[in-house]
Amino acid sequence: MSAVIEIAGLRKTFHTLRQGRRVAVDGFDLLVESGQVHGFLGPNGSGKTTTLRALLGLVRADAGRMRVLGADSPERLSEVAGRVGAIVESPQFFGNFTAHKTLRLLALAGGVPTTRVDEVLEQVGLRERGDERVKGYSLGMKQRLAVASALLKDPELLILDEPANGLDPAGIREMRDLMRSLAAAGVTVLLSSHILAEIQLICDHVTIISRGRRVAYGPVEHVLAGFDQHQWQVRVAEPERAVELLGRAGLSVTAYPEHLVVTGVVDPELISRTLGEQGLWVRELVPLRPDLESVFLELTGDHPHPALPRQVDGAPPSDGVIDLDVRESREVDA
């Protein structure tokens, strides 16, 4: 697959009167390949939006190299702008304009056939509300309109920053279906969202940023596998006896009021055989797999994964990164 977005060594600092010099992005790398639905995750203040703004030429980077659809950004971004649709932060619309008029003006300004207006309103579920004034829209409806504006050019690359913001559960599901349909049509999508369960359902690849640096990237299943402790939830009639038998077999067991958790077992047959040979039969044996939310909190919270060097306030940034690509999972220097 060819690279659609390439960022290497991106660095951006801001200077404020209150905080002085603040490093927003510090040597960040990002690779998005053609056809991917790529999740871009990070806590508030991690540098996520700054990265997108720099990529799209909205702020000037201090250092680093960026390419979009093969064109250096921002120098040659204008050459490929017609093939890119993007929402960064919360776009503003004229409240007295209807959605239809808003999109028509954007289409005319961008040299896009106005026939696309009804098509994109249909795509985002606003076809029946297109003649209403935007000031009467809910936050979720405004977000749908923003996505519609990004789709006007029928882009090859779609960059969306929090597209599900303000949507109800039905709207989130519709947005998920839209992302899947776009991916099926060959559109590459870079998707930023705080709804981690949705990212896990929608995206095939993910990049996680924390304190301006990449801390994990790769196929979602590989990122999750890196945190899989091979745990199993076990229920038996005699839990105390089960703890004794499993411990005697050298297995790590934690007892909870209603179940046991066995850690470090790849093949669950070892658990059932160990207990069954002593006449203790397993009632329940369920794998406990990490989800994207737990991995995200582990990587970006106060207690990082042991593979990640801890950042100390005032110290130079660490060079550690969990680097999970399509070929293998390994720890490398950034």
Automatic annotation (TrEMBL):
Q: Could you tell me the keywords of this UniProt record?
A: ATP-binding, Nucleotide-binding, Transport
Q: Does the keyword rRNA-binding apply?
A: no
Q: Which Pfam families match?
A: ABC_tran (PF00005)
Q: Which domain of life is it from?
A: Bacteria
Q: Which residues form a coiled coil?
A: none
Question: What InterPro entries does UniProt report for this protein, alphabetically?
Answer: AAA+_ATPase, ABC_transporter-like_ATP-bd, ABC_transporter-like_CS, P-loop_NTPase
Q: Where is the ABC transporter domain?
A: 5-236
Q: State one molecular function term (GO).
A: ATP hydrolysis activity
Q: What family does this belong to?
A: Belongs to the ABC transporter superfamily.
The record's annotation in PANTHER family points to: ABC TRANSPORTER, ATP-BINDING PROTEIN (PTHR43335:SF4)
Protein's name according to its UniProt entry: ABC-2 type transport system ATP-binding protein
Q: Which organism is it from?
A: Micromonospora chersina
